[in-house]
Amino acid sequence: MKRGIVLVIFIAAGFGGGVLWMKQRQAAAPRAAENSANAQAPAEKEAAVAKVLRDTNGNTVITMNDKTQKELGFQVKHPAAFQMSLEVKAYGKVLDPAPLAALVTELATAQAAYSASRNELARLNTLEGQGNASARALQAAEAAAQRDRLAVQSARERLTLSWGKAVAEQKDLPAFVRSLTSLETALVRVDLPVGETLKAPPTGARIAELSGQSAGAKFLEAAPNVDPQMQGRGFIFLSEPNSLRFTAGESVVGYIKIPGEPLAGAVIPREAVVRTEGAGWVYVLNSVGDAFTRIEVALDHPIEAGWFVARGVTPGDSVVVAGAQQLLSLEIRSARGSE
């Protein structure tokens, strides 16, 4: 009797659990469908408000109404008109001032020794004329003065051969070296590719970090020697002040300024540039205001405000400065969807 009652209770419990499971499953089904619909909604909405096409020149064009542009926070800006001096691109590095400091110290030591031996020679000359110094002592003083004079000459010549006349003949050479070792200034050498030359001396340069930031530099002189690795014509520039804090051994890109008619173009803000397909691009809004065209730009001339371009974009264009990466993402997703 007891076994029968237990069996009935077990069957009832199992039946009740099954009913509860069925109800929970039925309730979850609409929620899953709703979540799936919500997940697809952005993509469907995106597809409804934007279309990705190609123009006759093969450029990507994204059409989008004004309302959607505002919702996504797109902003456009006219590039600033700019004129840039003619430049030649070269590569180089920041020079280590330690060997220069060692040579300058050696020169100062030699000069001090020569000053002392010269004064001693003058004193003995006076005493010898009075009969108070021997000829042997005078000869020794002359030899010491001559030795110290040659030491000064040797240090000067090695300084000039290693660093050039513009550095060796600085008015206050010790102060010049201190500014280099404290990173207040920096000496930079850039070398042209093998076989290339300049018809006239540079008028200056822009020295750029590998990240793209650049600063102006003063031309000192042509390098006094050839870099064994580059094997091209080299030029020495002084970054003063050293606003980018260039440090010894740092690789840089040098944009050597040369005489000639400046280039006219526009400055594209850094935030407007997107990178894909191994190049730099910007999105330009058409005059109607409903389509963005992706246009390739050459990133050969970095300046403090962005990138200078001489073609592709003009000061009259409306360039996307907020939302360019969103447009590129939209374009990529559209291409994947079509595949």
Layout of helices and strands, plus pairs?
Layout: H1 2-49, E1 50-54, E2 60-64, H2 66-71, E3 75-77, E4 80-84, E5 87-94, H3 98-129, H4 135-163, H5 165-168, H6 173-181, E6 186-191, E7 204-208, E8 214-222, E9 234-239, E10 251-257, E11 263-268, E12 274-276, E13 279-285, E14 291-297, E15 302-303, E16 306-309, E17 318-322, H7 324-338
Antiparallel strand pairs: 1-2, 2-14, 3-17, 4-11, 5-6, 5-10, 6-9, 7-8, 7-10, 8-9, 11-16, 12-13, 13-14, 13-17, 15-16
Helix pairs in contact: 3-4, 3-6
How does this model look, in words?
The protein has 339 residues and is an alpha+beta fold. The chain folds into three domains: 48-84 and 263-338, conserved putative lor/sdh protein from methanococcus maripaludis s2 fold, CATH 2.40.420; 87-96 and 184-257, Elongation Factor Tu (Ef-tu), domain 3 (Beta Barrel), CATH 2.40.30.170; 98-168, Helix Hairpins (Orthogonal Bundle). It is built from seven helices and 17 strands. Strands 1, 2, 3, 12, 13, 14 and 17 form a seven-stranded antiparallel β-sheet that branches. A six-stranded antiparallel beta barrel has the order 5-6-9-8-7-10. β15 and β16 (306-309) form a beta hairpin. Mean pLDDT is 81; it is low at 1-21 and 36-47.
